[in-house]
Amino acid sequence: MCWQAIDQGASGVDMGRNIFQSDHPVAMMKAVQAVVHHNETADRAYELYLTEKQ
C-alpha cells in the first residue's frame, strides 16, 4: 500500500495506526521509511522489515 502510493506520485504516507499497532513498530517504521525516503521497492522494504524485527 505504501509503495503503491509513492510509486503513483504521493509525497508521503500516513501510516500511524499500522506502525503503532504493529508487533514490531520500529521494523515497520524502517520499512516505510525505506519506501518513502529511499525509493526502495515493496519487496526490499519487506526484507528490511523481516531483518529488523529480529
TrEMBL record:
It comes from Escherichia coli. InterPro entries: Aldolase_TIM, DeoC/FbaB_aldolase. GO terms for molecular function: lyase activity. Keywords: Lyase. The keyword Phosphoprotein does not apply. Signal peptide: none annotated. This is Putative aldolase. The keyword Cell membrane does not apply. Its EC number is 4.1.2.-.
